[in-house]
Specification:
It is rod-shaped, with a radius of gyration of 49 Å. It has six helices and five strands, in the order αββααβαβαβα. It has one domain (about 25-260): 2-Layer Sandwich (60s Ribosomal Protein L30, Chain: A). Helices cover about 65% and strands about 15% of the residues.
């Protein structure tokens, strides 16, 4: 009878124990499921973050590549411009040195010429030898005086020592209208006088004609005031303008355009 009494109690006890274990297992399973869900969410977040980082890294790589290319091109451009400026400065220095030497040679060769009828100066990067018309021509004439030949001979010697320089001979007048038979106006007179000097330089003093040009400026490039006798005397002149060979500068500009 006692055994039969304890059997129900044992069954009840075992049932309660199993239920507790099941409950515990269910709790652990639920917690594991929640942890798995949380880990899955975290993994998805990490993967998404990694994807964003990879995209950003790819963008940064492109930007860095483009930036590096841009910087490299800028540096090359700056280097090219610096080289161009350096070459140009060197060319200008050579030209200035040549002009200075040319002025000194001309002044030395003309030093024994009396009077103030010859001026040698540098204007606008060119050497100007200004000779008054009273030294070169008789009034109203376009024929070079014999007394002026020594002046032109001395100038020609210097020109022939610098054969790479070009020369423009300019005739200038005052603003008084000409009254010479066969001469229409000051344009024509100034051109005739410039041409007469060019012929003298080439035919008698052997300056290469390919280097020479003749130009008539009439009264439109005055050096003095045409309202005064002194000013008009300054304006009646012939200028021998010695210009540097600009091929070097044109080459530099062309190369700079190509490199730019």
């Amino acid at each position: 009878m006692r055994i039969l009494f304890f059997l129900p109690l044992l069954a009840i006890s075992l049932t309660s124990c199993n239920q507790a274990k099941v409950k515990e297992l269910e709790t652990k399973l639920s917690a594991s499921e929640q942890q798995r869900t949380m880990l899955a969410t975290q993994l998805e977040s990490v993967q998404r973050t990694n994807g964003d980082l990879l995209d950003r890294m790819e963008d940064l790589s492109v930007i860095s590549k483009e930036g590096a290319t841009s910087i490299r091109e800028s540096l090359q451009s700056i280097s090219g411009q610096t080289s161009y400026i350096r070459d140009l400065n060197q060319s200008i220095q050579r030209k200035d040195s040549l002009n200075l030497a040319l002025v000194m040679n001309l002044k030395r060769s003309l030093d024994d010429i009396e009077g103030n009828d010859i001026q040698v100066e540098v204007r606008g990067g060119k050497v100007h030898v200004s000779i008054s018309d009273k030294m070169l021509f008789s009034s109203g004439s376009a024929r070079v005086n014999e007394s002026a030949e020594r002046v032109l001979s001395n100038i020609s010697t210097v020109l022939n020592d610098h054969r790479d320089l070009n020369v423009i001979v300019e005739g200038h007048t005052d603003n008084v209208p000409v009254k010479i038979n066969g001469v229409r106006d000051n344009w024509e007179l100034s051109t005739m006088r410039a041409t007469a000097v060019v012929r003298k330089l080439t035919e008698e003093f052997y300056v290469d004609p390919a280097r020479l040009s003749a130009a008539g400026r009439a009264e439109y490039d005055p050096r003095g005031n045409n309202d005064t006798a002194e000013g008009r005397a300054l304006n009646r002149r012939t200028e021998i303008v010695i210009t540097p060979n600009l091929d070097e500068f044109f080459d530099l500009a062309k190369n700079a355009g190509v490199n730019g």
